[in-house]
Amino acid sequence: MAEIETTRADIRALTGVHLYHNYMSNCSQRVSLALREKGVDYVSHHIDLQRQENLTDAFVALNPNKVVPVLVHDGRTYVESNDIIDYIDKAFAGPKLIPDDPQIVALTEALLSASAALQDTIKFLTYEFLMKPISLKSARKNNALEAEEVGSDRHRFLTEFLAPGGFTNDRITAEVAALSAAFDMLEHRLTDTPWLSGATYGLADISWFPNLRRAKMMRYPLNVIPHWPHGLRGRARGPRSKPRSCRPNNWPRACSWQPTAVTARCGEPRSRHIWVRRDSFLQGAASNSQAKAASSPNRRVRA
Asked: According to the UniProt record, where is the region Disordered (predicted)?
């Protein structure tokens, strides 16, 4: 459990549940989904990443890692999204998101670790395929770089992203292949069970759903994992197992929001070549996944 100490007295004095997050952040979306699934009321504190609110002294005092989400529960501070959703499941009443089954517990832990390991790939592809078409002002570029320690992973990442040539084709190909391999793993898991977590919806599904949503935003052809997305849509739109006050009718909103700047600018002629390039990478990855699936002798196709 990633509990950290904060130097902010105002944070330590908070009561109830407070979530510091960003609607676009897939890690934040995990926590929002877990809170809603457990029926936990919370105070939302939206951190505007485009305005670099995560780099302010106040936020750095809350989380020195300068990232969202951060959960505060009765003055105690928790970071790292998968650790947070595990804490939420254990700390609050409501449906158990990990059954009391050692095998399912071990499987869930493995799937949470896999989703955490994929985070760098998700970040890379988000910057390449969603953020690159948006022109960043020079002042913001400089602020972002100056806020990071020279030689740190974050500084190297931003330096490469903001360079005139950007990321190399080999790097992009490798990251798309990593995403494709992860989805192959998910679909293999789903050949014998309706949910990643087993017979019921749970933490593994919550952890991976935002990654799926992000892939959809990047126009990844999701027909390579057809069953699980359908189940998630049905869960979002189907009958409620809790009162409306606990699970509002805007449940899917946490994973459906995207800045209008992205949708507005991605269609402009000046950035169209980026999307053509992106589509060639993603369609190629999907074709490889489908070919592997078709050649697998042990694969069972579900109706």
From this structure: 231-250
136 pLDDT tier (thresholds 50, 70, 90): low
pTM to 2 decimal places: 0.76
Shared domain for 61 and 199, answered yes or no, is no
Same domain, 89 and 106: no
Q: What single string gives the DSSP state of each residue in 7-49? A: S-HHHHT--SEEEEE-TT-HHHHHHHHHHHHHT---EEEE--T
User: Please, which pLDDT band fits residue 246 given cuts at 50, 70 and 90?
Assistant: very low
Q: Which of 57, 72, 95 is the last residue of a domain?
A: 95
Q: Which tokens in the block code for residue 103?
A: 């095998």
Clarify whether residues 250 and 283 are in a common domain. Answer: yes
DSSP line for 38-49: HT---EEEE--T
Instruction: Give a three-class secondary structure readout of 183-201.
Output: HHHHHHHCCCCCECCECCC
For residues 233 and 204, membership in a common domain is answered with yes
User: Would strands 70-73 and 43-46 be described as parallel, antiparallel, or unpaired?
Assistant: unpaired
Angle at 170 between CA 188 and CA 288, to 5 degrees: 30
CA 225 to chain centre: 17
